[in-house]
Amino acid sequence: MVQRQIPDVVELAQLIRLRPFDPDGTRRRLAKALTIADLRTLAARRTPRSVFDYTDGAAESEISLRRARNTFRGLEFQPSILQDVSAVDTTTSMLGRPAALPFSFAPTGFTRMMHTEGESAVVRVAERRGVPYALSTMGTTSIEDVAAAGPKARKWFQLYVWRDRSRAEDLMARAKAAGYEALQLTVDVPVAGARLRDSRNGFSIPPQLSVRTILDGAMHPTWWIDLVTTPSLEFASLDQWDGTVGELLDSLFDPTMTMADLEWLRASWDGPLVIKGIQTLDDARRVSAAGADAVVLSNHGGRQLDRAPVPLRLVPDVREAIGDATEVWVDTGITSGGDVVAALALGAHATMVGRAYLYGLMAGGERGVERAVDILEGEIRRTMKLLGVSSVGELGPRHVRLP
């Protein structure tokens, strides 16, 4: 028989402890986000569909992106027990300098469209957290304004090679003058990928009003109020454009660029050079031999060629082929700190994240980006401890199995 009693008032009071109400709605929302997937859910609620789909979507049937994420999901960690993990060091080296966490913020276009704080918010978080940040050619904040927003951040400039080479030379000169540390050349966009979500949504820069956008705006009034009460949304490094994103890319980018053009690039940029968009072992060897300081194994987040190679699967072979002569980074499909740790264990020197911090930006501006870093850092530290390693340098193939 269970004996019952009248509850003691003091004990009952200790059990019923209500959490104090936080009047800050953004802080309340972000506090409930425990994963990047939670931030993605918040982002979908806070932004118009066309904006969310631009960030969330990929090319054609989105097979490349799904395969990349499924590869991370299929990994199997192999922990080592009874190791001293009382303290964990998450620092790594990127381009010969320390980064507080083993990832950087990837370059993303149209960032002020996701939230009007845009690139300035991202670089401020990068400065505070010791995470390098790459500003995109397609950015919506100027090279100089980003430098002013994060004067002590490690800043890289991402370059697409244009048909008008003088424009590219001007951008590189401005980046150098503003103190950008490295140039990141993206090489997987001879033409724009077919991003069908954008086409179906009638997505353009600046956003154009239609019956659909007006109805969507009624569901997201805060986003629209921010848009119309802040400086106009435009490309900071380009002339004004009224067409679709794909039309813009096709009109600007040079499909004739070859390996020989790296000599032209080196004549204009004498700092560290990162080549982003490597998808084969042969190309990794070629750009390493040409003097790249780092290669990014990437299929552009699945946004260019559908059915492209999964970048993570290239890591072991590329690392073995080029050793430490050129740093090997990887992106595409990374949605958790565990994903970051797995990539490092397979041989990557570092990783890059894009959608992960953009979901945070859409969910809560600068504070949302900070929350994304909190989530990733917590997951990285916890995963490392559970694997039995106390520093990034200890991670190796013995800690993960790639089916």
UniProtKB/TrEMBL annotation:
UniProt-listed CDD domains: alpha_hydroxyacid_oxid_FMN
Essential cofactor(s): FMN
Residues involved in glyoxylate binding: Y54, Y160, R195, H300, R303
Domain of life: Bacteria
InterPro entries assigned: Aldolase_TIM (IPR013785), Alpha-hydoxy_acid_DH_FMN (IPR012133), FMN-dep_DH (IPR000262), FMN_HAD (IPR037396), FMN_hydac_DH_AS (IPR008259)
Family named by the database record: Belongs to the FMN-dependent alpha-hydroxy acid dehydrogenase family.
Active site residues according to the UniProt entry: H300
Residues covered by the FMN hydroxy acid dehydrogenase domain: 28-403
Positions annotated to bind FMN: P107, T108, G109, S136, Q158, T186, K276, S298, G354, R355
Matches recorded under Gene3D superfamilies: Aldolase class I
GO MF annotation terms: FMN binding; oxidoreductase activity, acting on CH-OH group of donors
Keyword check for Flavoprotein: yes
Keyword Oxidoreductase among record annotations: yes
Official protein name in the record: Alpha-hydroxy-acid oxidizing enzyme
Keywords, ordered alphabetically: Flavoprotein, FMN, Oxidoreductase
